[in-house]
Write a structure and sequence with these properties.
Keywords: Lipoprotein, Signal. It is a single chain. This protein is mostly beta strands. It folds into two domains: about 150 residues, no CATH class; about 110 residues, no CATH class. It has four helices and 22 strands. The strands form ten sheets. It has a three-stranded antiparallel β-sheet, with no helix packed on it. Strand 8 and strand 9 form a beta hairpin. The chain is elongated.
Amino acid sequence: MNKLRHASLAGAAITVMMLTAACGGGESSAGDDYGKAPAGSSSKIGDGYASGSGGYGSGGASGSAAAEKNAPAKQLAVREAPGIGPVVADGKGLTLYRFDKDTAKPPASRCDGDCAKAWPPVPADDATATAGLDAELGEVKRADGTMQLTLAGWPVYRYAKDAAPGDTKGQGVGGTWSAFAPDGKKAGVAGGGDEGKEGEKEKQPDEEKPAADGVSVDDNPKLGKILVDGQGRTLYRFNKDSAWPMKFACNDACLDTWKPAKPVEKSAVRGVPEKLITTVTRPDGTKQLAVDCWPVYWFTGDKKPGDITGQGKQGLWFAVDDQGKKVTTPAS
């Protein structure tokens, strides 16, 4: 039995090294940085809502705030969100969201564990529609056996960092979270942003394909052999991130400047040991390329292939060499 168990563990370790699971045990433990919204997404719905912290930290809520985020929706309302348009809110004015990695046909929720702490599922009980809401209410059974509210088939969530009625801080987080429009589609997107036709099978998360851009080695005259993406952009790692346990410290406004590199196919890896190239899951559910289990990014300040203007920024950002190690050589 012990031999069988040891063999199973060895097999699991190999699997982790083969791009089929995230580093750090598969689930990222982003801690205080879990689920942060992009910069500028702190708009309010309508007027007259008082601001306040609401008691929500960087991630899940606590105390009475947590209870409020997990409370039934009561009577849903349609409200106007500046810069977004009409959105659906619960009976207390908290914005309701949908997740691109869920499905509506059939309804299925894929936000569990830490994800559900940042995005509390809305219970199915005690929810009623209101004038202007054009989507059918329903329910779906979650993995833990609880029933979650659905709107037009899509599971419904609140965002833990929406501190006050009217906040829309969850809009656009990770490119996968959107406030509900009154018809159940994505608010703030022309045509609702829903792809596919009636009756067609919706795309499942496990069907997503890594980008084909690839990873290769560039012989930089100042830094030596460094990793670049398929467009020749230098790849960097961030000292405040962590490979073990997995932690993502670049969130919010940071992502305006440092863009998470997309995962790649194994066949598109050149000049670097394939075992070093993996995929990790960010707190918002999106996938990111990792080198030696460190999430890597490209810098918006690099304007052409070969640029290394991000090297040594703030003493925290460094290019990565062909063995997966950070390069500390100054750029100038």
